[in-house]
Design a protein that fits this description.
The protein is of the alpha+beta class and 578 residues long. Helices cover 47% and strands 22% of the residues. It has 15 helices and 20 strands. The strands form 3 sheets. Strands 13, 14, 15, 16, 17, 18, 19 and 20 form an 8-stranded mixed beta sheet that branches. Strands 1, 2, 3, 4, 5, 6 and 7 form a 7-stranded antiparallel beta sheet that branches. A 5-stranded antiparallel beta sheet has the order 9-8-12-11-10. A hairpin with a 5-residue loop joins strand 2 and strand 3. The longest helix has 64 residues. The chain starts with 11 loop residues before the first helix and ends in a 6-residue tail after the last strand.
Length: 578
């Protein structure tokens, strides 16, 4: 490769990057990001304050509502009781019902705890009933604290009611006990609006909904439906009363704040949809996006202006790359601009030279590796001579191997299990074959055919083949131990024979195989079929070739299919090392 200049006379990167990106895009991104960040935090703080003020305002209004009822009740316990109820006290009670629509019934109890007057909107009025109310929690609570507020109850499972009791300044004037319908708080709650759709609601101490702009939600008294509201209250309490984001009954994400109503245990929660609350921020982001688009348009115009000055070198590079990409590796790009374009052109020219060499080598190796062992393909490529693959008559050692009981196993096992076993099996055998520089010519199912001494000759092919077969047996037997849980009847047998055979390429232009043809191939295949699990069967010629180098055991002659006479057979032991 030619030497590159240490530094170009001018920097195209600096001209384009600094002029476009740094001058336009970076400031806009910084401005947009800072606006979004600070705007979000400022908006969040203002929303917290707004919701907190609205919640405290709503709590004060409800407190005033309840205080108004207690003040009205206070007027009914100003005078001491006489022996009989006069009409003035009865008229005062009826006037109270007219002035305070929320009061459903009023009970007046004297200093001794006896009921003296009862007026109601829905029941019969009673005078001098005499029922003893001294043990009533409302009466006892009012006498102890001057005023008493009971727990919220839902009459008929719908409308919320609360009992309010007020005691007079003296014990002789007695106690006024009123049943108040809380649905009248709806007027207070429905008047509260935060933004366009923000609203408020009230939960009692156990977390039941007692006031909501949608009064039907209150009347249903559905505790399951109000659990998101209870979760909102719990989350606010966990944050020490600060506004938090959560979900309301409709599953909408909202921002909520809370204020308590003194003396009742009730909570007023004000909420606003998060999308509405942060709408100004979203509008700001859209403005930022518009600025970014405008900046991108400006950058495009600058890029167009610069492109006009670079169109010549680009066209030369485009034409040159197209020619090289089409396979014209002899083409050279002539460009002298003194910047990055010239360096790129130099790189392309060097790449064209390397591609020409690489393509030729890749095509040759690609053709070879379709049917040769990798080391054989590399040998043919390094010698640049593939005549070694031509058909010829040589003495080879043919090795066949397969799994015993595999057919029955594949019929019983799941397809995924069979494929996993075969994959592990072939990976292991391929490593052994490569180690011994043999050539795998074919495989089918669980069977495999391997050649030793072809296409490349080697010293002592019979000894190498037996050692390879021993390594194959030892390797597969280790695999069989792992497959024992799948099928303990699996085994592995090997057969090898030595003799002359015709070896070479066979097939069509689109599909070539390197294989061997001859009687020695049939003999090795029959020996493999005759071998039991863990056996390596060797023919007479291979046994004579190895001599005493490998301990062999001569077995009884065997009648093999396709052979007129019984064949001498030897067994090789599995060596303890490779």
């Amino acid at each position: 490769m030619s030497d590159l200049p240490l530094a170009p006379r001018s920097s195209l990167f600096a001209k384009s990057f600094l002029a476009l990106f740094a001058a336009v895009v970076v400031p806009l991104l910084m401005a947009g990001g800072s606006e979004a960040w600070f705007g979000f935090n400022d908006r969040r703080d203002r929303l917290n304050e707004l919701l907190d003020v609205e919640a405290r305002s709503a709590a004060a209004k409800i407190q005033d509502f309840m205080d108004g009822i207690r003040d009205q009740l206070q007027w009914t316990v100003q005078l001491p009781w006489s022996e009989t109820v006069d009409d003035r006290r009865r008229l005062d009670a009826l006037r109270l019902l007219r002035q305070v629509p929320a009061v459903v019934s009023l009970t007046l109890v004297d200093g001794a705890g006896k009921e003296r007057l009862f007026v109601s909107r829905i029941g019969l009025n009673k005078i001098e009933d005499g029922t003893d109310h001294s043990g009533n929690p409302a009466v006892r609570g009012a006498r102890a604290d001057r005023a008493w507020l009971g727990p919220v109850t839902f009459y008929g499972g719908s409308e919320p009611f609360v009992t309010v009791a007020v005691a007079g300044n003296r014990s002789a004037v007695g106690v006024a006990v009123a049943e108040v319908n809380l649905k009248f708080i709806w007027d207070v709650i429905s008047a509260i609006r935060v933004g366009r759709t923000g609203e408020a609601f009230v939960l009692d101490q156990p977390g039941r909904l007692i006031a909501h702009p949608d009064i039907s939600l209150v009347l249903r008294a559905d505790e399951t439906a109000t659990r998101p509201l209870q979760a909102l209250r719990a989350a606010i309490l966990a944050k020490s009363g600060r506004a938090i984001a959560g979900r309301d009954m409709a599953g909408q994400t909202v921002l909520a704040a809370m204020a308590g109503i003194p003396g009742s245990g009730w909570s007023v929660i004000v909420k606003q949809p998060l999308a509405e609350a942060f709408a100004p921020i979203y509008a700001g982001l859209w403005r930022t996006a518009a600025l970014l688009i405008a900046g991108a348009a400006l950058a495009a115009m600058l890029a167009y202006w610069l492109t006009q000055r670079m169109i010549g070198p680009i066209r030369l590079l485009e034409d040159g790359v197209a020619r090289i990409g089409a396979g014209q590796f002899e083409h050279r790009i002539e460009l002298a601009t003194g910047d990055e374009f010239e360096r790129v052109a130099t790189r392309f020219n060097e790449m064209a030279v390397e591609l020409a060499v690489s393509q030729e080598r890749s095509e040759r190796i690609g053709r070879l590796k379709r049917f040769l062992a990798p080391q054989v393909a590399e040998l043919v490529d390094s010698t640049a001579d593939d005549h070694v693959l031509d058909g010829r008559r040589v003495e080879v050692v043919v090795v066949f191997c397969d799994l015993r009981g595999f057919t029955a196993f594949s019929a019983r096992a799941e397809p995924e299990t069979v494929m996993a076993v075969l994959s592990e099996y072939y990976d292991a055998l391929e490593r052994v074959i490569s180690t011994h520089a043999a050539t795998m010519t074919s495989f089918s199912g669980d069977g495999m055919m391997v050649l030793v001494n072809a296409p490349v000759s080697c010293p002592d092919p019979a000894l190498r083949a037996i050692r390879m077969a021993s390594d194959m047996q030892r390797t597969v037997q280790k695999l069989l131990l792992g497959w024992h849980a799948l099928d303990h009847r699996l085994g592995f047998g090997v057969g090898l024979a030595m003799g002359p055979a015709t070896v070479g390429r066979i097939g069509s232009e689109g599909r070539l195989d390197y294989t061997a043809i001859g009687n020695v191939v049939n003999l090795a295949s029959r020996l493999c079929s005759s071998a039991n699990d863990t056996e390596i069967l060797v023919d007479h010629v291979a046994a004579l070739a190895v001599g005493s180098s490998v301990p062999l055991v001569e077995l009884d002659v065997r009648a093999l299919k396709g052979f007129d006479r019984p064949v001498p057979v030897f067994a090789a032991a599995i060596s303890s090392t490779g």
